[in-house]
Amino acid sequence: MKLTMILILGICAIYGLHPSDSSESLINGKDKIVMFWNIENFFEPYSTNAHNTWTGKRFYSKCDGISKTIMLVADKFGRLPDVICLAEVENRSVLNKLLRSTLLRKLGYTIIHYDSPDHRGIDCAILYHDSTMNLIKSSPKHLYDSSEVIIPTRDILIAQFDSLAVMVNHHPSKVGNGKSSGRAIAMKRMNSLADSLLHAGTHAVLSVGDFNDHIWNTQALSAFGNTAPGTIKYNGEWEKIDGYFLFGNIGVREYVFDSPLLLEKDKKFGGSKPRRTFIGPRYNGGISDHLPVIFIISQE
Prior knowledge:
Deoxyribonuclease I, Chain A; alpha+beta; single chain
């Protein structure tokens, strides 16, 4: 633990980041840290799925920003996340590049990823520490329509660890061709999968993700000292569409991570907003249009 924190502080110094004065005693030694983050179209350089101005230089700049954010999360909470859940990942290759091209390569994360049938070419993924999380098995779960035809959207990713199952969701969007029926199907599927896991003997299921719906009351965020009013900003209004559902008897505390690294001034509506990678076709240089969410899991 001491060596890890020395490494984190050293990385912060190299990056010119500003660590917090303390880890704020937000966790104890037995707690687990789970992080969820929609990282906005994390595509290969020059991918046909990406904007035509998406280059290698911009890709690796985004990798650098993702790794910096994880370091800042580790500084805030006293250690690295045990499980990092990601949405909008193109393939396993971008995750390998992320781990190999940044100082994350020194931190011992293992990848869980499966290709999904999504029409945009994006998937959910997990990075986890096998030193703190014993993986039993993982699997992707398709969504099906009323005719039992696979819906071309993101699979729900399940990772079953020895003390906790984690589900990663990225439900159908409200924009474009997204319909509320698609989100209803995804929620029903999520609930069914969680019930199956519990009936099979899993102690608890934490289902995290981008649910593409303003489900949660943002006022509840203040209970854990959150200063962020949401996870995305849409037409000048903050919304919290990223969060969790809990199945089983464990404690969860939630924190929206609003580091200045992830924000920019909102010139149109005032205040701040997530500094996204692209605004329409224009490259904006940020990391994501979503803020990460941190979950502190207490199983005592």
